[in-house]
Each structure stands twice: as C-alpha cells, then as structure tokens.
Amino acid sequence: MSKLGPAYPRIDAVGKVMGRTLFPGDIDYPDQLHAKVLFARRPHARITHLDTAGAEAIPGVVAIFTAKDVPVNEYGLILPDQPVLCGPGSDKPHADRVRFVGDQIAFVVAETEQIAAQARARIVVEFEPLPVVSDPLAAMDPAATLLHPDHGSNVLHSYRIRKGDAAAAFARAEVIIEGEYRTPAQEHAYLQPEAGLSYIDSDGRITVEVAGQWTHEDQAQIAHALDLPEEKIRVIYPAIGGAFGGREDMSIQIVLALAALRLQERGILRPVKIIWTREESIIGHHKRHPYIIRTRWGADFGGRVIAAEATVIADAGAYAYTSTKVLGNAALMCTGPYEIENVTVDASCIYTNNLPGGAFRGFGGPQGAFAAEQQMNKLAETLDLDPAEIRRRNVIRDGSTLSVNTVVPKGVTMAEVLEACAGYELAVDPPARPWLKRGSGLAIGFKNIGFSFGAPERCWATIELHGATRIERVVLRHAGADVGQGAHTVMAQMAAEAAGVSFDRVELVLSDTATSGDSGSASASRLTFMSGNAIRGAAEAALRRWKEEERPAIAEYQYIPPPTTMYDPVTGECDPNFAYGYVAERAVVEVDTETGHIRILDLVCADDVGKVINRQGVEGQIEGCVVQAAGYAILENFIQKDGVPLNPNFSTYLIPGVLDIPDRVHSVILENPDPVGPWGVRGMAEMPYIPLAPAVTAALHDATGVWFDEFPLTPERVLKGLGTIR
C-alpha cells in the first residue's frame, strides 16, 4: 500500500496537544543567563554617544555587548547591508546609524530577565536625528536623504522586462484598461515570538537553539558575523511556532551566538536565553512589502490581451532582506498567468526608514496578482465577458511564452485549475436584509516552486537502512524545518515510500546542522518538492547498498533541480523558475453597506498539487492559507507613520479571529503530476494566498458596483468607497 496520499497523523500532534512539545521559549538549562535587546526605537538617527557603565554596575549584570564587540558587524540574506549592532566602535562605515525602529544597539546579559530589563533601561544613548524618509516615491527623488550613502541611491535594485513592441500593440488595441493598485504591509503574526538559547556544546561549538527556516543559512550568517569557520557554529531548530517567511532573516541568532563567544572568552560557560515580547517581535522582524503598481493593459474586442505595461514600486524598508527576490517575483506575476505578446515592466525596490520588507507567504505573488487580476476583471466587465471566459482566452498552457520571453516549464495546468474552480457549483443567495449586499468574484494565479532567478538551489538527505535480513528501521537525516506545516510527517511518509517500509519504521533526525547537510529553506513552496527528490535519491542509493549486503546501508544524496537564470538587465529574458503550481479562487462575500463590514461566505480554492502526500495536510494548508490571506485582504491594517509603527500589538493590529474567517472553504485538489517533482509533487502551501484579495475585491464590486484598488478593506475604506463617508 502506498504511503503517499492517506492522512497519516502528524508525528508532532500528540506532543503539541498535550503541551509536551518544547518551543525555544519553553527550553531552560541549568544555570542559564537571560538577555534583552536594546532597540533603537527611532526610524533614522546617528548614535553620537553610547554609555553602558551605569547599566553594567547593576548587581546581576554579567555583560553588555555593543557594536565594538562584533567581529564583522554586518549581515543580510541577500546583501550584508545591516549592522548586527548599531553604534560607535565598529569598523563598518555608517554602523553608527539606525535606520528603523527595530535596529539593535546593545545586547544585555544578566542573571535574570528582570535585571536585564533594568540594565537596558539604564543604558545612555544620545542620538543626532536624521531626516526620515518614509514614502518610497519621495525616496526615489535624487535629492532625498540617502539611507545608505555607500549605495549612492535609495533605489535598492531594479528590473526591466521588454517583450515584443508594447507601444505598437497599444496603438492598435481596441480596449485599454488602466489602474493604480496599492497593497499593504502585513505582520506575520506567528504564535511564537522570537526566542532562543545559545551555549557551547560538548564539541566546543557555539550552538544556537532557535526557531528559523534554514538552519545552514543561519549558520553561515552567524559564522560570517563572528568571523569563524562554519563548522564552529551549530544551529538547532526545536519546535517552531509558525514562520510564513518571517523567520528567513536574522533576529536573535547572531546576538545570541555573539554572547556565547564573548562569555566563553571571559571564562563564562553558561547558556544565554532570550524571549521577545510581542511588541518587540512586531518591530524587530520584517513585514510583507507594501507595493504600488501602476499598470495598463490593451486588448481586442474578443478579449485577447495583446499588450501590458506596469511600473512596480516596492517599499523595501531600511535594509535589503529579500527585497530583490520578492521584487523579481512580483515583476513576473504582475501580468498574471497569461500569455501576452507585448509586455513592458519596470520594477524597483526602494530603501525607506520603514520596517524592512522581506519574505512573506506568496513572496511577491499576492502583490503582483492583485494588479493582474483587478485588470483582468475590469477588462471582462468592459467587454461584457464572463470572468472565467476571458481567462480561458488568455491563460498560459504548455508551450506558452512568459513575459520574460522563455517557455514556461512543462506541466502547465492553469486552464484545468480554472475550469475546476469556475465549474464548482456555488450559489449566491439573496441577503437577509436590504442593506446587505452579496456578490461573487473570481481570480487565478501561479506560484513558483523553489528558489528563482539563479539562486543556488539544492537539498541533501541521508538515509540509513538498519536490520539483519530485512529492513527493520529507516533513519532519515534531514535539515528541513517544520514550521507548523507538517513537513516532517510528509518527509517520514516519503522516506517510507522510497524505502518500501511501513510508516512506523521511519525514524527522523532533523533540523540540526551537526547531523545533516544543507536542505535549503522551508520557503518558496519548495520543501516537499526538494526534500522528496533528495529522500528518494538517498533511498535508492541505500537500497543498492543493501542489496550488496552492506549493513547498515547508508547513503547521502544531493538533489539539484533544473537551473534558473537571472533577468537580463536590458530585456529581462530569463528562465525564472523550474516549476510552478496553479490556483484559482472564487469568493462569495456579503458587505454591510451601513457599517462597511465584509464577510466571506464561501471560498472555493482549486489547487493543482501534482500529487497529494498527506490529504489532511493539504486541506489544512489550503484552509490556513485562506484565513491568513483573508486577514491580509480585509482586516490587517499595519500603520506606519514617519517610520514608526502605530499598532505594534495584537490589541490594535487585528488578525482574523474565529468570527472573521470564511464561513465555508471548499478545497478542490487536483493531481496533475509535475514532470520533475518527486512522485509528481508540486509545492502548494503558498498558492491559496495568491488570488484571494482580488477574488474578494471582484466579489465586492459584483455586490456594490464599486472597484476597490487598495486594501485592506477595513470598514472605513469600504464606506469611503461606497460614498457613505468622506
């Protein structure tokens, strides 16, 4: 019997339900110390004076570390443009500047958390205020204050796409639709705030136990900042309380490791623990990028889109994080999963003094899809075409050429997914009261699987087969992170399938740089795809050794997918991704025209997952993703004014509660195998996010006749759009 498909129980379910599973904040070691971070709490300033003497004199304070203690005071996932600690004493240029409220200035280590907080409050910092640049459009002005003088511009990076002759195509277009769309920042709102511990392990390695998404990348960045070989650093992930991209970049990893290093130099071999408050978590890690997308589409009267142009502007915030890669996805996806012969896209990400933008579920896809799907729905209305029909006439298929002038990888099922969603029977019943209006809206999208645009992509797995005459035990060593999505259960299923044993014979050794090779990140909808190929390769090699009488039979395998390439700087031509997933959604919403409140009554989400590994897991990912996307579309209004977050707590930043989620989610799961996916698998955990916001705005338009080109659709914004208030 195949182990792929059935809903095997989550291997972590009992421990989590019973409260036995330990997250980083739950772990305590004997004789441990406690730490606090001093945040800048200013969006832009130069530190002119930093005095820790008074704080260090407090009984119980063990050490306070500042910029002068960091060997290489820089880090960054894409570009090392951020100081580990800001302040004087660093040899890095401009490290005495703070560029957003969450910049870290000092790391306080004390006997108790209370003493650490008391000492932090006693640190004296004097600032010279610098001009705050919080509007990305204003930041692009050559006269604007430079946030990173060495970069020479507030434009962090730009891409351009040129396919065909857009100007000539617009000249002959019979219908032209224009729009400007704005998408908001969003907080990841994972359940577990940043927490972790550091210590020296029995092999003398600086060890950090923390929640993250890529153990080996954390290890590399820590090693770089501490100027140590990577083998001197060990990173372990215990249970992880959510991530959604919010743990891709550093938060506490480097400062924890720095404390272990410097305390060891002083002869202090005690673990150090830190737990951030919710407010510290919100100001201390990146957000979903806000985007401004100005776009124009031209079509013929038959509904065929013949030209598209877009200007895409992303607010990168204070540091690069993953802004360049997110921008790459948004530039690709702002013209949707459609074959358009003539395309012009100019895309830029801009430094500002806002909280940094970074990875978030969908990774540029939701922003790009909002513009594309609004355009397609407006075009359908103008031409009096059914929203599904106009998409049938434009969607990519096998052999289609993308905007970047290369053929989309084989296995394109956008048309099939569209039909599965559009054909799902869903009634829009009349509302119970006259001031309630109901409508239905459709949107579609596609999502890359795996790292894009030439980023190095690989995944290691080790399989051990134990037993005398038969395989009694299979040990899988893998570094992939389970951030709550059930990845480790899926890995066990795939290992059992690949080795030909029952599920209960698989043992897992996971998420530790000391026990396995680099798995890459738990992001980009890649982990099941990449780990499955690696596990299958390792199992096949181990089985060959088993047949050769090797006991135990042990094999390591590195899977490397087909290559991708970066945008050509002039034309944008590239092979951006090696695989995609496809999604379509229909939303039925009810809007209260007196209060402006929106309720999603029904949401149909059709996803081609290639091959279901764990059906309950797939359904859970769809439902959870839809709820989170509904928060993005309707509820979550993250407010920053002059670089300062005004609602850094859950009392004022509202995420969906049980009364805010869709009444019904209809999961439609398709299984059309991807040609290079393991057993045909496609990644799917981000796909339901992509088209939800435009499906909701299309439904809201169907109900009210008003287009909303900016969200979240808070009651105030809805009432203003309806003309009820000004």
Describe the protein:
By secondary structure, the chain is α+β, with helices and mostly antiparallel strands. The chain has 17 helices and 25 strands. The mean pLDDT is 97. The strands form six sheets. Strands 3-5-1-12-9-10-11 form a seven-stranded mixed beta sheet, sandwiched between helices. It has a five-stranded mixed beta sheet with strand order 7-15-14-13-8, sandwiched between helices. It has a four-stranded mixed beta sheet with strand order 16-21-22-25, with helices on both faces. The relative contact order is 0.13. Among the domains are: 25-131 and 210-267, Alpha-Beta Complex (Aldehyde Oxidoreductase, domain 3), CATH 3.90.1170; 291-452 and 568-722, Aldehyde Oxidoreductase, domain 4 (2-Layer Sandwich), CATH 3.30.365. α9 packs parallel to α10. The chain is 25% helix and 24% strand. A hairpin with a 5-residue loop joins β21 and β22.
What topology emerges from the helices and strands here?
Elements: H1 13-18, E1 33-39, E2 45-51, H2 53-56, E3 61-65, E4 97-98, E5 104-110, H3 113-122, E6 124-129, H4 136-139, E7 155-163, H5 166-172, E8 175-183, E9 195-200, E10 206-210, H6 215-226, E11 233-236, H7 253-265, E12 272-275, H8 278-284, E13 291-299, E14 305-317, H9 323-333, E15 342-351, H10 365-383, H11 387-392, H12 414-422, E16 436-448, E17 459-466, E18 473-478, H13 487-499, E19 506-510, H14 527-547, E20 553-559, E21 580-592, E22 598-608, H15 615-635, E23 640-641, E24 644-645, E25 664-670, H16 692-704, H17 715-722
Parallel strand pairs: 1-12, 10-11, 14-15, 18-19, 22-25
Antiparallel strand pairs: 1-5, 2-4, 2-6, 3-5, 7-15, 8-13, 9-10, 9-12, 13-14, 16-21, 17-18, 17-20, 21-22, 23-24
Helix pairs in contact: 6-7, 9-10, 10-16, 13-14, 15-16
